[in-house]
Amino acid sequence: MVYDLLVVGNGIAAQTFLFELFNSEDVKKSQNFSVAQVYSEEITPSCSMRSTATVSLNGIEDGVSDLGDELRDSFFLFQHFINLYSPTGVEKATQAITYSDDLHKAKMIRRFKKLQMNTHSPFKESFEGTLLDSYLINPLMYRSWFESQLSEFKIDRYLYFLKSFSKNIDGTYVCQLYNNQVVKTKKILFCTGAFAKLYSEFFGLKDEFSNTQIVPGNYLEKKVDLHMPSFYLTIDELNCIYRSQEKSLIIGSSSMKDTLAVADLSQLKKILETFNDFCHISFGELNNFKLITGLRLKGVRRRPMSCALNPEKTIFTINGLYKNGFSFSLLCAKKIFREINLFES
Fold first, then answer.
1. N or C end of the chain, less CB within 10 A?
2. What are the two backbone dihedrals, phi and then psi, of residue 162, each rounded to the nearest 5 degrees?
């Protein structure tokens, strides 16, 4: 069998694209369309399951830059998506944003133009800053919702690492999996995050990802019942998040350059101390938390990648979502669906 499309990966980019694909009128009308999905959480774990998982417009104005326009469009797409489908795992929250020094105050004024005095729990006193309508996401519940939505569609899944692929003389691709199983397809969509760069030489795609950067994001998480509603606090562009439904407290994140496994524990400790100082409840000590790291791919000028990787337009990618995976994924899914031309005659 030769599939029409093989999707590589199972993070938010892959799931959002598959949802877009199978909810399109073209697929609903098609009688002979085939899709396969290949992924291995053991070898290439998805970053969306290792994310602080928030969505916010964060004061970005229209028409200032291409990246800003993409961020705005993505936020409103996410907002529309939530209102339309009401997926589980998503909660509206007010994001309280403030600063601890003059440098970060100046940054806030540049972004938000005007700051106001506010009160917001669990801050122990009033603060100068701003309040934004934002969203908190439980990644596991959100993924489960996508899986339930996609379960009614025919998707052949192969839970193995894609080891290599080659092109046949007829233009189709022969994909060899880690267990030596072979999958054949006409087109491939890579939704592999940081692993696209890590394994780019294996797939002959080194040049396509040469200007991207792998940036690990490290944050602290622990299960605790704070006996209060969910909240979303930001100080100096760093976050403290409490998701009351799952009783999960998240502090961070810190980014490390030129490394994949080492976290800056001193920086995370300082972040935790800052929130302990600002709030009327104690969040505990560093050793009370679990350290979690997600590998993110940072695109050129922080812009997402949603494009063909070859002139024939048979190999595509959705990547470079960096810190905005839950919103950028919707924008990229729509763009790739338009360009991948799966229903050509």
1. C
2. -80, 110
